[in-house]
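User: Hi! I'm working on a homework problem where we have to compare a predicted structure to a textbook description. Could you give me the structure for the chain below?
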Amino acid sequence: MYLQAGANPQGGNFEVDVSIFQSGTVPANAQSLDFKAWNAQGTGPPSVSFDGNSLSPVGLSSGQGPSGQPYTLYGADISAYGGQMGQLKFTDAVGGPGLGGIELDDISFSPNAVPEPSTLALVVMGGMALAARRWRARRS
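Assistant: Happy to help. Predicted structure tokens:
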């Protein structure tokens, strides 16, 4: 599915957002909402909400589709809505992160939680940043 916000198709001086949505029940065991997205401007995922409540997708990995199209796999915590009925909505907003268009694919619910950075990973990244800073200071 390709979403692209833009000018009012009927002429006018205002721009319009574009959304795709579906009403249904979130599986009771769902911990995350996963989807692949490609953004024409490379600025992040579309706005995602469930029953009017914003979700915060985080990038999990990147890859390339069969046609060679790059994409990012996103995950959003949906655990608070397990078993509830509501509307799942993806929006490409004018002036928002989707400016230029968003392509969506493989939208699914998962029983796996959205991974968060572990303490060890954060410590390692901090150590690497400190080592790089010291290395640069020695070269100056």
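For your comparison, note the following. The first helix runs from residue 119 to 139. The helical segments are 119-139. Good luck with the assignment!
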